[in-house]
Amino acid sequence: MYVCICNAVTDHDIRSATDAGVESFEQLQARTGCGNCCGCCEVEARLLLEQARAENAGAMMPLAA
Ligand code: FES
Fold first, then answer.
1. 39: Cβ below 6 Å to ligand 1?
2. Per-residue confidence (pLDDT) for residue 59, from 0 to 100
3. I need a labelling partner for 54 at 20 to 30 A (CA). Which of 11, 27, 33, 43 fits?
4. Does ligand 1 lie within 6 Å of residue 30's CB atom?
């Protein structure tokens, strides 16, 4: 789904950005342009960014023995 209409940034783009090491909204802006125009998408983009980061962190947790 499109998160940022102004710059055609999707939820997939945000997930891909976090997979590539993006850790902050400012880094996401620099990489994708998300939020660089009207700013209407910022709240949703920040939420998706945090969810993706949390999922990535969970994926890196070692399994209990
Ligand atoms: S919808 Fe993202 S900057 Fe306008």
1. yes
2. 76
3. 33
4. no
